[in-house]
Q: What sequence folds into this?
């Protein structure tokens, strides 16, 4: 098995889920006592969030690029950025290393297309929903992407940073997300992309009238497939 390098800590709540999924999926594939070969560089999310809020994306990219180099030096054969939002700097990260970076939006798009869908609603941080780096990556695979209205985007973003990143899961917030999902479905969404790694702590398939695409789970599965490929 190849060694999977994890750029994590953004937030550690979802990075812990990445680690769990990688090991569960590896055991399912290999059986017995097998677990995933991986190395983790976990950053201080408070520092990254401050750079996000200040719009200092190039500096944030430098921080993650340095972390990526440390993972390659530690023996990583492929890399995951364990957050959708920070794929805004995926190009900087990929350019800093010689091992492949498995792009989260590509694995998500592949799953949506495999399900035969063409139009999806996107939930995520305000950066992910409102900027073009993620939506355009999905659109590059032929998908039509829609996002919530301004009030919906604000609530989705608030819950991520003020609750889910802190390990807080509230039923009231789940209801708010379900209302946002209902609006996206009414606008024509055939599926919902959970485009923030923390959202899976709150929303599952049972909370949506259309298929949901859990990006953390999809990313982890793609990583195990790549790590076990000949």
A:
């Amino acid at each position: 098995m190849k060694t999977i390098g994890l750029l994590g800590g953004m937030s550690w709540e979802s990075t812990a889920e990445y680690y769990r999924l990688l090991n569960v999926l590896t055991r399912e594939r290999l059986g017995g006592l097998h677990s995933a070969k991986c190395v983790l560089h976990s950053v201080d999310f408070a520092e990254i969030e401050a750079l996000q809020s200040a719009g200092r994306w190039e500096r944030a990219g430098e921080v993650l690029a340095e972390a990526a180099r440390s993972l390659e030096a530690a023996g990583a054969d492929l890399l995951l950025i364990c957050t959708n939002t920070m794929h805004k700097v995926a190009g900087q990260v990929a350019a800093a290393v010689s091992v492949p970076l498995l792009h989260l939006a590509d694995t998500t798009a592949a799953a949506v297309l495999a399900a035969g869908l063409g139009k999806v609603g996107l939930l995520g941080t305000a950066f992910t929903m409102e900027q073009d780096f993620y939506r355009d990556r999905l659109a590059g695979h032929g998908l039509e992407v829609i996002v919530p209205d301004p009030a919906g985007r604000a609530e989705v973003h608030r819950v991520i940073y003020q609750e889910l990143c802190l390990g807080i899961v509230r039923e009231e917030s789940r209801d708010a997300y379900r209302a946002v999902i209902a609006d996206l479905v009414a606008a024509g969404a055939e599926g919902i992309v959970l485009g923030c790694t923390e959202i899976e702590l709150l929303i599952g398939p049972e909370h949506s009238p259309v298929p949901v695409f859990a990006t953390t789970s999809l990313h982890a599965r793609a990583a195990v497939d790549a790590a076990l490929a000949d």
Notes: The chain has a mean pLDDT of 96. The longest strand covers residues 4-8. Residues 12-30 form the longest helix (19 residues).
